[in-house]
TrEMBL record:
<feature type="transmembrane region" description="Helical">
    <location>
        <begin position="66"/>
        <end position="83"/>
    </location>
</feature>
<protein>
    <submittedName>
        <fullName>AbrB family transcriptional regulator</fullName>
    </submittedName>
</protein>
<dbReference type="GO" id="GO:0010468">
    <property type="term" value="P:regulation of gene expression"/>
</dbReference>
<dbReference type="GO" id="GO:0016020">
    <property type="term" value="C:membrane"/>
</dbReference>
<feature type="transmembrane region" description="Helical">
    <location>
        <begin position="36"/>
        <end position="54"/>
    </location>
</feature>
<feature type="transmembrane region" description="Helical">
    <location>
        <begin position="244"/>
        <end position="264"/>
    </location>
</feature>
<feature type="transmembrane region" description="Helical">
    <location>
        <begin position="305"/>
        <end position="325"/>
    </location>
</feature>
<feature type="transmembrane region" description="Helical">
    <location>
        <begin position="192"/>
        <end position="212"/>
    </location>
</feature>
<keyword id="KW-0812">Transmembrane</keyword>
<feature type="transmembrane region" description="Helical">
    <location>
        <begin position="157"/>
        <end position="180"/>
    </location>
</feature>
<dbReference type="Pfam" id="PF05145">
    <property type="entry name" value="AbrB"/>
</dbReference>
<keyword id="KW-1133">Transmembrane helix</keyword>
<dbReference type="InterPro" id="IPR017516">
    <property type="entry name" value="AbrB_dup"/>
</dbReference>
<feature type="transmembrane region" description="Helical">
    <location>
        <begin position="12"/>
        <end position="30"/>
    </location>
</feature>
<keyword id="KW-0472">Membrane</keyword>
<feature type="transmembrane region" description="Helical">
    <location>
        <begin position="276"/>
        <end position="299"/>
    </location>
</feature>
<feature type="transmembrane region" description="Helical">
    <location>
        <begin position="95"/>
        <end position="116"/>
    </location>
</feature>
Length: 356
């Protein structure tokens, strides 16, 4: 184990083994044209190893959280490339769906809360586990409120995993095309970046993350770079986005980062949480489908984009799917930023209630 500053612990051999497993599985899934293959292949392989307690190449699974966090800005910068002055002018047409989201988030939070309560979870675990966004902030609030942090963490990660597995499968079933597959849409810049482009994009990623952290924004590693990249593209300072190979590597890192979270998880708790999370997330996805049917004509967006905008997945993961489909990326992203703000605000209000 290499000891780095700022609590950045690193086991190089274990990390190499973990990335070898995740990368190989991701490439196999990508070559097989599976939906979002790089991410889901890496996730499936590392989660399986973690739950079974396997040690690939004799090494424990290891992918430090700081490494995953350091790659998330790549998705933020890529997503920001979809914004333009024309998009800003069009955003006024989204008011109806944004207003609907303000109603939707408390409703699906309440639905998830009822599912978890009926499943026998205590009120605090049910409340924070049902929050439809802001994983890091929600788990922190659960800890400060005296809730079972392990249960809330598992429920929140299962929400992400169920969503990012189900959504690409739904699109595969409906369209016959795999999201993010080898034959899928372009997910990043195909042309070479100039040195000036590289500097601007790097500044957007690093500077945006730092500024968002200083401002205590939720999902700072994604939202900060996204805002800076959107501004840089809107002002014409840069025209490119991160290359496809870097976006692909980021998918592998994100998938492995989710998978290793199941290391040491109690199997009985995991089985119980999985059933409840699948039911709660299924209700959320059904609600997202209903919202898409009702709102897509009103806001002038494709039904696919509205469904993605209301699906309760992670901002980075939903942005990856939107990038892959090339479907109103800005529309989807703006709604997910609002979803996170609403979900975290609701969780903070609940935390004050539970502590009183």
């Amino acid at each position: 184990m290499v000891r780095l500053p700022f609590r950045l612990q690193l086991n190089p051999a274990a990390l190499a083994a973990t990335l070898a497993i995740a990368g190989t599985a991701g490439l196999v899934a990508w070559a097989a044209h599976l939906p979002l293959g790089l991410l889901l292949g890496a996730l499936g392989a590392t989660a399986t190893c973690a739950i079974a307690g396997w040690r690939p190449f004799g090494q424990p699974l290891h992918l430090p959280g700081w490494l995953r966090t350091s790659f998330v800005p790549v998705i933020g910068v890529s997503t920001g490339g979809a914004f333009s002055p024309e998009i800003a002018a069009q955003a006024g047409e989204w008011l109806a769906s944004l207003a609907a989201l303000v109603l939707f988030i408390p409703l699906i939070h309440a639905a998830g809360f009822l599912v978890y309560r009926m499943g026998g979870l205590p009120p605090a675990e049910a409340f924070f586990g049902a929050a439809p966004g802001g994983l890091i902030e929600t788990v922190d609030l659960a800890h400060r409120s005296g809730a079972d942090e392990a249960m809330v963490t598992v429920l929140q990660f299962l929400r992400l995993i169920v969503t990012i597995v189900a959504v690409p499968m739904i699109f595969l079933f409906l369209t016959g095309h795999a999201v993010g597959s080898a034959g899928g849409a372009q997910m990043a810049g195909a042309g070479p970046l100039s040195p000036a482009d590289v500097l601007v994009l790097a500044a957007c990623g690093i500077g945006g993350f730092w500024a968002a952290m200083r401002l205590h924004l939720p999902a700072a590693q994604m939202i900060g770079p996204l805002i800076c990249s959107a501004a840089a593209h809107g002002l014409g300072l840069v025209h490119g986005v991160p290359p496809a190979w870097l976006v692909g590597l980021t998918q592998v890192i994100l998938g492995a980062g989710l998978g290793v979270r199941f290391l040491g998880a109690d199997h009985a708790m995991l089985r119980r949480a999985s059933g409840l999370a699948i039911l709660a997330t299924g209700l959320s996805l059904a609600g997202a489908a209903g919202a898409a049917l009702l709102l897509h004509a009103l806001v002038g967006e494709d039904i696919t984009a509205v469904f993605l905008a209301f699906a309760p997945g992670g901002l980075a993961e939903m942005s990856l799917i939107a990038l892959s489909l090339q479907t109103s990326i800005a529309f989807v992203t703006v709604h997910h930023v609002l979803r996170i703000v609403l979900a975290v605000s609701l969780a903070k209000g609940g935390a004050r209630w539970l502590l009183n």
